Amino acid sequence: MRIGVLTGGGDCPGLNAVIRAVVRKGVEVHGHEFVGFRNGWQGPIEGKTKPLGLEQVEDILTRGGTILGSSRTNPYKIDGGVDKIKAVLADQGVDALIAIGGEDTLGVARRLTEDGVGVVGVPKTIDNDLGATDYTFGFDTAVHIATEAIDRLHTTAESHHRALVVEVMGRHAGWIALHSGMAGGANVILVPERPFSVDKVVAWVQRRFEKEYAPIIVVAEGAMPEGGAEVLKTGEKDEFGHVRLGGIGTWLAEEIAERTGKESRAVVLGHVQRGGTPTAYDRVLATRFGLHAVDAVHEGDFGVMVALRGTEIVRVKLAEATDELKTVPIERYSEAEVLFG
Ligand code: F6P
């Protein structure tokens, strides 16, 4: 078999570990051949390929980013996009695809399977918001990076008796905020799933100052004040209809300063959460996903995504995986809330 591999959407640590595992097992155990498609769905639409054999996957296990490149291209938004993909696959002699991505990339994979292309999905996203899998790789690394930043911010906040607001990624799901905030002992954690009361945040911040501590507030980029709206960076939307968020941290820091009379600063962690080498946990998860994904292709089991359930890797229908975002349940948030203030 000749198998195409692509990575789509926002990059995340562990993508190269998946590619390596797919190719190593695919070539050495199953005797398949591979071709890399560049920049997400743009590759199979425009015929942009890259050789992908044992030599190309040497030394990439620990490397961040993706050797194949990524994009947010949506073939269903391009005139004749699906026909172009079918023509390129036929031209390249590709029998099946492994698509490594989040809800958008895997949503396309699901539709393509319905349109007759054999695709197996691998879930990635630092946001950990994909349904049907307990964890996505990239999340653990992002939480580590954010936690380390919070640890460091504690000491400078203490020195200057300031409130520091740390804005982390997470458009619709507050997993990174919840985990890094808990791990870093944040004073307040704000997530998109639960609109927050500014009065309550200010009260928690003041209580912290009264105890002679400097408060650290962790806020997900998609969090909103009660009765308010998401803070947008620009009005522009990508091909999957997502707006660019960013700015809630700065807004909240100003609000805190005004209402408490204390100095307050915002720190936006941004793409640093997605860069660099994956943690050991993410390397293992990504490798296991890759090994199981290539087995699924070998068996001709298309329209599925590999997923983590407990400690087992299982296969779930792409339809199930992309049906609904996995957001932070209210009970998980309430658990953390006990420690606020
Ligand atoms: O989906 C992953 C993610 O990192 C989100 O948390 C974030 O909102 C978005 O990507 C940022 O996307 P971009 O790379 O287009 O700035």
Detailed description of the structure:
With 341 residues, this protein is α/β, with parallel strands linked by helices. The protein has two domains: 2-137 and 278-321, Rossmann fold (3-Layer(aba) Sandwich); 139-275, Rossmann fold. 39% of the residues lie in helices and 19% in strands. The chain has eleven helices and 13 strands. Helix 7 crosses helix 8 (248-260). 6-O-phosphono-beta-D-fructofuranose (F6P) binds at residues 10, 102, 125-127, 169-171, 221, 245, 274. Residues 10, 102, 125-127, 169-171, 221, 245, 274 line the site of 6-O-phosphono-beta-D-fructofuranose.
How widely separated are the two ends? 58 Å
> What is the name of the CATH architecture of the largest domain?
3-Layer(aba) Sandwich
> What share of the residues lie within helices?
25-40%
Radius of gyration: 21 Å
> SSE string, helix = H, strand = E?
EHEHEHEHEHEHEHEEEHEHEEHH
Mean pLDDT: 96
Query: If strands are numbered along the chain, what order do they take across the biggest sheet?
Result: 3-2-1-4-5-12-13
Counting copies of identical and different chains, the oligomeric state is single chain
Low-confidence stretches: none
Q: Write down the overall geometry.
A: elongated
CATH class of the largest domain: Alpha Beta
What structural class results from the helix and strand content?
alpha/beta
> Main sheet?
7 strands, mixed
Number of helices: 11
- Overall domain count: 2
CATH fold type of the largest domain: Rossmann fold
Number of strand elements: 13
The hetero molecules present are: 6-O-phosphono-beta-D-fructofuranose
